[in-house]
Amino acid sequence: MDLNFSAEEIAFRDEVRAFIDANYPAHLKGRVLREDLSKEDFLAWHKILGKKGWSAPAWPKEYGGTGWTATQRYIWLEENARAETIPPLPFGVSMVGPVIYTFGTAEQKQRFLPGILSGEVWWCQGYSEPGAGSDLASLKTRAVREGDHYIVNGQKTWTTLGQYADWGFFLVRTDPNAKQQEGISFLLIDMKSPGVTVRPIKLLDGGYEVNDVFLENVKVPVDQRIHEENKGWTCAKFLLAHERAGIAGVARSKRNVERLKAIAKAELGDNGAPLIQDEDFRRKLAELEIDLTALEMTELRTLAREQAGRGPGPESSLLKIKGTEIQQRLTELTLEAVGNYAQPFPRALGDNEFAVGPDYAGAAAPIYFNWRKASIYGGSNEIQRNIIAKMVLGL
Amino acid sequence: MNFDYTDEQNMLRDSIAKWAAGQYDFDKRRAALANDEAWKTNWATFAELGLLAAPLPEAQGGLGGGPIDVSVVMEEFGKALVVEPYVPTVVIGAGALNYAGAAAQKEEHLTAIAAGERVIAFAQAEPKSRWTLTDVATTAKKSGAGYVINGQKAVVLGAPQADYLLVTARTGGAQRDARGVSLFLVPKSAQGVSTRDYPTIDGTRAAEVYFENVSVGAEALLGEADAAAPLIERIIDEANAAYCSEAVGCMRMMTDLTREYAKQRKQFGRAIADFQVLQHRMVDMFMASEESYSIALRATIKLAESDAERARAVSAAKVSIGKHGRFVGQAAVQIHGGMGVTDEMRVGHYFKRVSMLDATFGNVDFHLKRYTALSAAAA
């Protein structure tokens, strides 16, 4: 066992770092508040990486992956977090892409994978429904086969950034008489299809990040179904396991710890000395860092397992729970750090013309409130604990 | 011992609840937040209901009540998520006038406050002061019979609605000295006062307030020059006790809303309230709300005690309620699932409010330090 990088790995890190320095768009540096980003902003780095062939490092090489080792992928994430890049959105690269190359036909792979790699096609997720959240398999959106099409009717919700999406991947019920999990299919739907309506949902931080998606007699060609009819749950579970693995966000949290330290150096504590010297604050920061270190080692162990050809198992639920708890604690501590300036919310005036207080303060409260979503999405942390209880501990 | 409210206090509570149910429900409140003038209607109603007069002396048109009356108002305001600047005006502004005002100042301002004709905001915090009351860089230099004020005040709650500003300014001493801090009551319309108004994330209104060579007469000084620190400490304790009661109202609502939601939300073929892991969390929310009420009540009663007793009781309440508020808010959102993070559901708005109350006049860490220091001094 050895925790140090090899000479080759250090050379790789330097190469990656130089590439990011040379190619990351200058106008996007330091942009952290997602709701301030345009569609072009979200895609800019993805498109650059697409040209370089680095947009999907985790994919098998034959489908456009980089062929990097787990350690190299870890370095890649670290360097991106360090430079605070806006990473490729997960919906294409991390979610539907792996489903397509794992379960799709040769024709489907050829049709859909290139657009995901290049960043030309924006994907969104149609999983949850108003009545099917934690209990995803109870979904009701109905797809009825008519010749070489399905006719789809229903409502999806919490579709993140669906307002920009070109395509969506949807779980639909194709057999209402089968057992819940056995009557579901996985469909790819062109969001421009007649009958698709996207309605943004306002969140408590004032932004619009998620959407309701209404499907009314939407005609979907059968060749846009991935895997067999009524086998969609297999794809769904596969995708959720992948989603959870990426959800830990260790590299980003490490970067946010550094960001928080910088804030705590700039802010004065209750005794007039920099907040970073405040005993109470320091202790909380140290505890957070230690928990993050333990999570990082756990993630590395999981990566090593994957490298050895054993895919993400139910242990990925651990990464989801611990990762999101740490992310939320970071937002909490940042909120504490900015003191009185947590309160102003000039964004409610509909413009960002002036910030109030130091430039790092304005986003602290919106991010704190927004980030409560992390312990809810991707399978709530309660559901993740159920998964560990059942699948790992055999309870 | 007696933990009963008086008939008058119960009537006060009922009258606010009735007003809120009719005139300040969630949709009406939302509409009011988007309108710069809507608060005036509500403020006039507060005057009619006697809420503004409740703790004020009878000699100036008040009802002669005390902190318990304020706590009753604030708990109801917490339940209704009232955003009007009640504490800055009635608790802080009127409190300072009552304790330190000259007869003429009391007569002029307290009468107007009771009648709903005066709104006061507390221009105290500064960009770098955090919550340290005596960290005052704003200066008031003697000039003839009066003073000239210069400086910037941060996140002044209620300043957009206010017509007077209660300002802490340094007339002597170094930036963090207790000695040398004075209190002034300055018309917002005074030459040289400018504001940058903005909403806060929980729907109240605030401003950055700038004083540029603002000349005020000797009559603007409230109490003795250089010696306002103990008074500021006292009125902020009173404000914090009031805010603690408001937080209790928020917590009780979150606990109730979450329970109701969990009973009607079905997943896996049954109400999510059937799941023991959620039941226990809701029990913890309930216990946190009850403990918060207890310690807020204690702080309110102790406002009448010695400076040290009062301060320790208020800091204890701020610590306890800061922690409980965070727990209850986060749990309430979590149990509501995705709906909890939407603007459409009330629960998130209570969560935002309790979170910002923690960030007002000292958070958990600030008051834990203050409590520890006061306890050490008492030992």
CATH A-level architecture of the largest domain in chain A? Up-down Bundle
User: How many strands, which pairing sense, and closed or not: the largest β-sheet of chain A?
Assistant: 4 strands, mixed
How many structural domains in the coordinates of chain B?
A: 3
> What's the mean pLDDT score of chain B?
96
CATH fold-level topology of the largest domain in chain A? Butyryl-CoA Dehydrogenase, subunit A, domain 3
Structural class of chain A comes to alpha+beta
Q: What's the helix count of chain A?
A: 11
The gyration radius over C-alpha positions of chain B equals 21 Å
* Assembly type: heterodimer
Q: Supply the number of structural domains of chain A.
A: 3
- CATH homologous superfamily label of the largest domain in chain A: Butyryl-CoA Dehydrogenase, subunit A, domain 3
Poorly predicted runs of chain A are: none
Sequence of secondary-structure elements of chain A: HHHHHEEEEEEEEHHHHHH
* Largest sheet: number of strands, sense, barrel closure of chain B: 4 strands, mixed
* CATH class (first level) name of the largest domain in chain B: Mainly Alpha
CA(first)-CA(last) distance of chain B: 27 Å
Strand content of chain B: 15-25%
